[in-house]
Amino acid sequence: ETGKYRMYYSAEPEIPGFKGQVYSVTSNDGKSWTEEKGTRMEWATFPSVLKLTDGKFRMYYQNQNAIKSAISSDGLSWKEELGVRVDVKNTAGLTLSNVASPTVIKSGNEYLMVYSGYIDQK
Question: How many whole angstroms separate alpha carbon 93 and alpha carbon 61?
Answer without folding.
Answer: 24
